[in-house]
Amino acid sequence: MDGDDATPRPRPRLEDVAVEVGLSTASVSLVLRGAAGPSAATRERVLEAAARLGYRPDRAASLLARRRSRLIGVMMDVRSSYHGELLEDVHEADEQHGYDLVLSTVTRTWNEQRAVETLLDSRCEALVLLGPEASAAWLTALDRQLPVVVVGRPFPSAGVDVVRASDDVGVGAAVDHLVGLGHLDIAYVDGGPGTIATGRRRGYRMAMRRHGLAHRIRVLRGSHTEEAGLRAAPVLMGDDAPATAAIAFNDRVAVGLLDALSRAGVAVPGEMSVIGYDDSPLSRLVHIGLTTVSQNSQQLTQHAVAAVVERLDGGRTDHREVVLPPQLVVRTTTALPPRRRSTG
Amino acid sequence: MDGDDATPRPRPRLEDVAVEVGLSTASVSLVLRGAAGPSAATRERVLEAAARLGYRPDRAASLLARRRSRLIGVMMDVRSSYHGELLEDVHEADEQHGYDLVLSTVTRTWNEQRAVETLLDSRCEALVLLGPEASAAWLTALDRQLPVVVVGRPFPSAGVDVVRASDDVGVGAAVDHLVGLGHLDIAYVDGGPGTIATGRRRGYRMAMRRHGLAHRIRVLRGSHTEEAGLRAAPVLMGDDAPATAAIAFNDRVAVGLLDALSRAGVAVPGEMSVIGYDDSPLSRLVHIGLTTVSQNSQQLTQHAVAAVVERLDGGRTDHREVVLPPQLVVRTTTALPPRRRSTG
DNA sequence: GTGACTGGTTAAAGCGCTTTAAGGTATGGC
DNA sequence: GCCATACCTTAAAGCGCTTTAACCAGTCAC
Questions:
Q1: Chain A CA closest to residue B79
Q2: Does the beta-carbon distance from A78 to B95 stay under 8 Å?
Q3: Cα A259 to Cα A57, A171, A227, B228, distances in angstroms
Q4: Which of A44, A73, B151, B174 yields a CA-CA distance of 20 to 30 A from B30?
Q5: Residue A4 counted as domain residue
């Protein structure tokens, strides 16, 4: 006599499964989470019933009830495909450690603070911030509340964990590569102010000195966009002692450079070698084939997640800075210099 | 005598605020959500206390308790910066309608089905899927469970809402632009199989016919990457009646084309005009300056959110397909043809 | 046969919030 | 004074799940 006017539960709950198998919700919960206790026979019955009813746990309820959220909050700029790549890896690493992810994105109308607050309100146990721009003071204060890992940005403080690639080493590798090919007149197109740019510039200078090329150091004023490359090009060529190779602050600058050079009829790499930084999708374009420095994002994220897990599960309380060596990715914009010249 | 050995509540709860102002949690809840009831005086006291204690509502608890979640789930490919842009707009639009966002990303290890399940488990009331690849059958079934809007992909079914830009109109506008400049030999570099490519190809053919240029229709085999452009270039130039303009399936193909042309010494737009499709960040690069077709993502997302809201709050039950006209963005890769030739 | 286990199961107390019906207190009209 | 009226405020019942202590057979040893 039970017509189908009985409101059909839109979604089965734990209790529906429990009733179905004639057990308590406690047992069902235990089984579904794979916790110890229930016998093999019980497990089987429960799993079968759950599958049959199409049961799926409600995240909000589960989250509210459980002691630990096992949630890691990630803040990112959703418009950056680099962050997207990082996120993909973070996701995978988190999963391996039994954590789940909560995402919060920075947009025009949603700044870093709001993004972080959302994560906090979602009961995250730790935060992974991809390339945050917030002040050191604020982040340090945050870290007193829960473990915070800053990824990909040099951070002048021991108040949080930091995982990043070593920019000076990266640029150093670029110089080494060029010197190895026989280049001597290697210029650097700068990235303007900022901690990242400073590190890379220093890397260039140090490497040049290391190779006894201190007197050939040439840093061209720049920024982080293509325009810097466009403007640097004539300076590189116009000299009476033109450079045979250039290292750009990043790939975008390098692409600007490439463009200006090709317009000016300067063959790359025939007459000039060019190296970028970031290994961006741009640099991988088959017809650009930019030799560049990769930050090895996989390792970056693995360390970031490891840092979180150490503090959450490993009881670590001090802060740590992990600096990874970047890797040079040699493509087609670097080659032997046009002709050897005498040093001096 | 209350030493500070009393466990300090890590986070104030609603009750803490209530105790602070000597009211019930009910009143505090009412005030904080801006619901009607509490007097102005009460409101003020509550807000002051909440701010002083640094109270922030727990999302999980709030979500669990409330009747409606007011959550809209968005599925996207986090590695696509285009999706990132869309998301930013969706976020803004949702907010305006009083909805909150839950994000779920498709990755290597996390397919569309899992992403959607996560959204469902999070109590979303509706789903916005950015460029999903799932089958029509599955999505249609999903839509019986909750409103589903597919964004940016032609979708052969009336089982869900669809919001997309009209590809044939977009390519048509490109043809119009070129014809307006005086081009007659306008070739099209195809994007291979797939619904999107089909629509664009059709747009090209229709527009050419409309201009009485049916006999000059030339569709070059292609794909969706730079390589297609590289391969198309010689075909475009090599003929005894070379094209004066080319429209590419998308920006990546167009960039491949640009590259090959510049290597071959063909001036763009002097000797050949090129138009892409997507208005990707790539096309905006100052030194590429690709004339391209923009899908007007802002409108796309506004319609998508509107569709959701209509079904959630407006009681609409039928399905709707919104097809927006794309917009041509003229940059620097299109100009008058090199020299007029007689038609025929 | 008793006590000490032990493996399996569950009652019950939350998690922190929302929501609604019911309660209280003024106010005003009669 | 008494009742209706309006306005605030709150008690209490969840939301759907987790977790822990308690419980209940069965063993098993002695």
A1: A84
A2: no
A3: 55, 22, 10, 21
A4: A73
A5: no
Chain B residues with CB under 8 Å of A107 CB are 87-88, 91-92
How far apart (Å, rounded) are the C-alpha atoms in residues B149 and B160?
A: 6
Cβ(B151)–Cβ(B131) below 8 Å: yes
* Mean pLDDT for the stretch of residues A117-131: 95
**Whether the Cβ atoms of residue A222 and residue A189 lie closer than 8 Å to each other:** yes
Q: Are residues A192 and A307 in the same domain?
A: no
Is the Cβ–Cβ distance between B113 and A56 less than 8 Å?
A: no
CA distance B74 to A121: 20
CA distance A177 to chain B (A): 26
Q: Could you tell me the end-to-end alpha-carbon distance of chain B, in angstroms, rounded to an integer? A: 101
**Together in a domain, B128 and B192:** no
What is the span of the domain harbouring residue B141? 71-165+296-324
Q: How far apart are CA B324 and CA B170, in angstroms?
A: 10
Q: Please check the confidence at residue B339 and state whether its pLDDT lies above 80.
A: no
Q: Which nucleotides of C are covered by protein (CB under 7 A)?
A: 7-12, 14-20
- pLDDT classification of B6: cutoffs 50, 70, 90: very low
Residue B106 backbone phi and psi in degrees, to 5: -90, 130
B153 and B274 fall within a common domain: no
Dihedrals phi, psi of B316, to nearest 5 degrees = -70, 140
Asked if residue B7 belongs to a domain, the reply is no
A6 pLDDT above the threshold of 80: no
Distance between CA atoms of residues A92 and A95, nearest Å: 5
The pLDDT, as a whole number, for residue B343 is 42
**A24 sits within 7 Å of strand C by its CB:** yes
Contacts of A103 in chain B (CB under 8 A): 103, 105
Domain membership of residue B207 (yes or no) is yes
| Upper half-sphere CA count for residue A333 (Cβ side, 13 Å) | 32
CB B119 within 8 A of CB B127: yes
Q: Are residues B216 and B284 in the same domain?
A: yes
Residues with Cβ within 8 Å of residue A5, at least 6 apart in sequence: none
What is the reported pTM?
0.86
DSSP A268: T
* Closest residue to A58, CB basis, from B107, B121, B287: B121
Say yes or no: B122 and B86 in one domain: yes
